[in-house]
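Field reference: sequence -> structure
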Amino acid sequence: MADRYQRLANSGPGGFLVRRLGLPRPEPLRRHEAGDPVVAGPVVLGGAEGGRLRQPLRELLKAMDATVLDPDAADGGRPAALVFDATGISGSDGLTDLHAFFHQRIRSLTPCGRLVVLGTPPEQAGSTAAAVAQRALEGFVRSAGKELRRGATAHLLHVAPGAEGAVESTLRFTLSARSAYVSGQVLRVDGTGAVPATEDWDRPLSGGVALVTGASRGIGEVVAATLARDGAHVVCLDVPAQGAELRAVATRCGGSALELDVTAPEAPQTLAEHLRTEHGGVDVVVHNAGITRDRTLGRMDADHWKAVIAVNLTSVERMTEVLLAGDDPVLRDGGRLVCTSSISGIAGNVGQTNYATGKAGLIGLVEALAPRVSGRGITVNAVAPGFIETRMTAAVPLFIREAGRRMNSLNQGGQPVDVAEAVAFFAAPGSAGVSGQVLRVCGQALLGA
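Structure field:
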């Protein structure tokens, strides 16, 4: 869907007018394309004294073919990323190191640059003073994200002690154009399980099988294409009424189509039998199917309530239970479960009590299920999209649509591929250290935390 204001603001006459009036100027975001480097320019790497990640970060950045600059190096050009190891900060006095590093450099970031801070989960920091300082990093990163301009974004990675070897996938995602519409968010990397080696970061899902529900259009269609790009055979699932569109999507991404109503009583068992018989199991499950039936609570009848809860939440619970059941479960060891939630499930939304309830329930499923399946190397995560440019948002009234686009730090709506890239990050074998989390893909929307 065209964002006419963004086009105007980035034109010559329009840009002049926008600047004179003090209006927001949405920067065209750099998104990933085949062959792109992880980071498009030099990386300045700094850190507090005693940090445990600075040397591992240097090695990872060099493995990504990034040019790494020390804070005191001679001018190496405008940096594409500023990376700071804050794990050595053990008290509030040490936060001055954070200020000193970024104060000198934040305005030199290139358009669509990255600010990345790495710390320790506060509860694992070792002392009260250290926990306080590590928790303070969140306020810093969220605020810095709101100050950045020209499409630049900020990220905080909490890396548990012992998880230094599990951080590469998360670092690659946050530094790259794959995270174009993610900012001001916190990701936690744990090291409780082994991280499979990734031989080809461009096709990390090679040889795997992925299921995407609600795949006939919108976000689901792009998720299917993105997982196929990453090497998976994608089983595209949607209701029979969308059969023609579904088969077209499956053909384009070299996958297969399964027409199935996820709310049908027999749906979980039918799905499990299909995946086992046709593919020997499944490696990635993306629960993306969802519907809206918007009404304010006083005007919402029971059918509208039940329909949304049935598709958006209950069907996910039922299918997941069957895919994980038994001594030889359909979802293989080391598998990935990803749910499509929403910022409505975090912050709520007028006229969407049914939708927000279901999406919040998915977050509850992720948080409850992740520790239960960790012993099999399975991760469970959710993406929570904000305003994404789809046919559904195109039908939103003009002024509400414009508010949705502008009420975030990037001053624009996201694209379906932004959600798909976040799903692909969670789906990657190298993301084994990331589980039980919800990643907002919202341009750091003003709604919610």
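Note: The longest strand covers residues 331-340.
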